Amino acid sequence: MYAKASKTNGIQGQNSVPNSEGYFAEAESLEETENVPSLQILDSRTEESTEKSRQFEYDGLNFQNMSIADLVEREFAKFEEAERFYCNYALAIGFSIRRSRLRRSEGGVVMGRQWVCSKEGSRSKKWMNRYDMVRTPRKETRENCHATFAVKYCPKRDAYIVTKFVKEHSHRLTNSREVPFLRSHRYVTESNIAQSMSMRKASIKTNRTYDYMVDQASGYMKVGFTSKDLYNMIDFERRQVVLDGDAQAAISYMNAKAIADLECFCMFSVDEENRLANLFWRDSQSLHDYYCFGDVVIFDSTYKTNVLKTFLTSIKDKKPVSIVMDRDEAMRVAIDEVFPDAHHRLCTWHIMRNVNTNVNNPEIVREFSYCVHGGLTPVAFEQYWQQMIDTYDLKGDWIEMMYRKRKRWAEAYCSG
């Protein structure tokens, strides 16, 4: 399951001393050396006991006994090597890691990277105190752990230098029998996927394939992933095949339609991997209908600015008088840019659905509905709204936000 990882460049800083929190100060002078430490990992399948399989070393230092001073000014040629090192350290110690902060330069070069324990931080309170949740909340897994590992890019050395290493954990570390099943240590390789896909063609079910892989690896602890991981990866691969096939079929259909309909309009774009990213089309009937009845346009999903511009091109630059949509800030900004003179209103169906979600009180919903649809004047609306607020003691960000946007959804302000 494990093999010797790629080598990393190492320099011991002469004037750099770690502080109590695991931060490393900048070294004023550095002595270059050609000694290159390597990350040595024992193959767990060659060990007789599970405990021996966790005796991992880095540059002659045992992970179990590694201290902050051992990593002062260590170098990694790439930040991916630093991630591999910390992942192997976590595997030896008994915890799972996740990526945290990432800092890039204007040119896209990674200038700093930080990893933390998977139990770092705590769940946001807004997800703990919700009364409209249908499903039972997942069990809390965060325990405010402060274990951290960080590197930054040093242009002079053209390498990533360790800047922070906090090894203390606020929770019990995982034992040797559990550690292979932690998320950051589970990985389905391309060969595993290829083998599973081939066995599917031979009518062998995925669960049988997984049992075969477990037998090959001599146990569940050594296979490297769970059956659920294998199912997920196979499902992902199948979806990719279907998506690619659907994209080609859609473009072929548009080409055939353009031959039969001279006013058919279609534009599409591809991503960096030459896969279909966006597709916009309309036929001649849609164009004629828009010119006859296109004063009001309703959008029921989020469109980026470039898509709205494509829509405007397809209808030969005839701008709509009014636009109705759901409450989406990105969409509002795009509409203001592409259709600055159009009347922008919010869809009352979406408004009422959000009322039920955020208020969850039948009496307040009825009152709010009257504010939306009632034949009120602006003055009467203000009086009725304030009465509703006082009667039910309504407070909160959502209520305040809806009041600020009242001119986009209340009939009192939309007349005419």
TrEMBL record:
It comes from the Eukaryota. Residues 1-54 are annotated as: Disordered. Residues 44-54 have a biased composition (Basic and acidic residues). Residues 309-354 form the MULE transposase domain. Pfam families: FAR1, MULE. InterPro entries: FAR1_DNA_bnd_dom, MULE_transposase_dom. Residues 84-174 form the FAR1 domain. Residues 1-19 have a biased composition (Polar residues). Coiled coil: none annotated. This is Protein FAR1-RELATED SEQUENCE 5-like. The gene is LOC103339209.
